[in-house]
Amino acid sequence: MAGSSAGIESFELTLRSPERGEARGQLVFATARRARSAGLAALRGAATALVIDCGALGQTDSAGLAVLLDWLAEARRAGRKLRFEHLPEELLRLARISAVDGMLQQGV
């Protein structure tokens, strides 16, 4: 759904089915706006429950964490379930520091 040229941070979110998606690339400040938009669009096009595989994410930072938390908040507002699989350890460390790791790992 989103991407950019080689050598520049890129992020892509692909729906494999109405229930499953895959996030890949870098989820950092430079990609946060595109990633947020891609996630919100995926939620609108998904079934009532969506699982996003984050195993192909590379570099992540606090902006990326904020994007995932925003997706969870939007899913909750829309009355949908959202869960993440294979979250990168770097992202989980940031979530622990912010005391949101349980929410990130359990979803809504």
Structural class: alpha/beta
The averaged pLDDT comes out at 90
**Strand line-up across the major sheet:** 1-2-3-4
The biggest sheet amounts to: 4 strands, mixed
Radius of gyration: 13 Å
| Beta-strand share of residues | 25-35%
Number of strands: 4
State the distance separating the first and last CA atoms.
Answer: 23 Å
The succession of helices and strands, N to C, reads EEHEHEHH
Task: Quote the CATH topology.
Answer: Transcription Regulator spoIIAA
**SS element count, helices:** 4
Structurally, the number of domains stands at: 1
- CATH class identity: Alpha Beta
Question: Could you characterize the architecture of this molecule?
Answer:
- The protein has about 110 residues and is an alpha/beta fold.
- It has one domain (about 25-105): STAS domain (Transcription Regulator spoIIAA, 2-Layer Sandwich).
- About 40% of the residues lie in helices and about 30% in strands.
- The chain contains four helices and four strands.
- It has helices at about 30-45, 60-75, 90-95, 100-105; strands spanning about 10-15, 20-25, 50-60, 80-85.
- It has a four-stranded mixed β-sheet.
- Helix 1 (about 30-45) runs parallel beside helix 2.
- The longest helix has 16 residues, at about 60-75.
- The chain is globular, with a radius of gyration of 13 Å.
- The protein starts with 10 loop residues before the first strand and ends with a helix.
- The model is unreliable at about 1-5 (pLDDT under 50).
